[in-house]
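**User:**
Everyone, produce one record:

**Assistant:**
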Amino acid sequence: MKLETKDVFLFEDALHSMETAKKLGIKVVAVKDPTNISDWDKITRVADIAVDNLSNLNFDIL
């Protein structure tokens, strides 16, 4: 599969992974969970989209 980074979304809950993905040009969908509550404010600034859970995500906007 040959994809360009602009065509890829990372679904993630860890801030460090999101920061790395953004540096590579990958779009980030942040998913809130109990382990990232303390980083959530920063996560919402880093991520392209942030959701409390995947059932709240409108996949049509991707």
Summary: The chain has a mean pLDDT of 92. The first helix runs from residue 15 to 23. The longest strand covers residues 27-31. Residues 9-30+40-53 form one domain.
